[in-house]
Amino acid sequence: MFKRIFILFIAAGLASLSAIWQIQVPIVETLEPVDDAWVSSKPSPTRHWATLYTELRQLDPWTFSENKKTSSFSKNADKNTRGKIGGKTKWKLAGIVQQGYQRYVLILDNKNKMSQYRVKSILPNGERLVSIGDDFIQVWQADEMKIIKLYPYLTE
């Protein structure tokens, strides 16, 4: 019995030696650091807020200059979004709403009251609403068909 344990011990030792002999240990080479060409970017210097403010004021993006007030933009915007009778504004096209398959027009009258209309309805100044598009409506007034756009300044 002692002989068998001794043989098993020798066999296990030989198996482990052969396993160790099969393992190849990698050769570790030390690499020299390469000059790194990457440099972190430096943020551009920000200008002082006061200079930015004065430049923005000089550009004047919020108000119209005299030549812009008489441009076709403001004329068409007023003409194409409002219903007028005799030069007096009765209502303004405020929005178009779709609920399911039914479309409605939101009209803001001169008393700042919002009203909802659908096709074949009579608008505040007597016009009949003929059709409602994605961004326009067609109204019939005094034997004349008018197209009123929701965003007249985007398309001519």
Overall structural class, as computed from helix and strand content, comes to alpha+beta
Count of helical stretches: 4
Give the name of the CATH architecture of the domain at 74-149. Answer: Roll
Helix content: 25-40%
- What is the averaged pLDDT score? 77
Q: What is the CATH top level name of the domain at 74-149?
A: Mainly Beta
Apparent shape: elongated
Strand order of the largest sheet: 1-2-3-4
What composes the largest sheet?
A: 4 strands, antiparallel
At CATH level 3, the topology of the domain at 74-149 is SH3 type barrels
User: What percentage of amino acids are in beta strands?
Assistant: 25-35%
Radius of gyration: 41 Å
- Could you give the distance between the termini? 108 Å
Q: Quick one: how many beta strands?
A: 7
Order of helices and strands: HHHHEEEEEEE
Descriptive tags:
single chain, SH3 type barrels, four-stranded antiparallel sheet, three-stranded antiparallel sheet, 7 strands
What is the gist of this entry?
Helix content is 29%, strand content 29%. It has helices spanning 2-22, 49-59, 66-69, 72-81, and strands at residues 82-85, 88-99, 102-109, 114-117, 128-132, 136-141, 144-149. The protein is elongated and about 120 Å long.
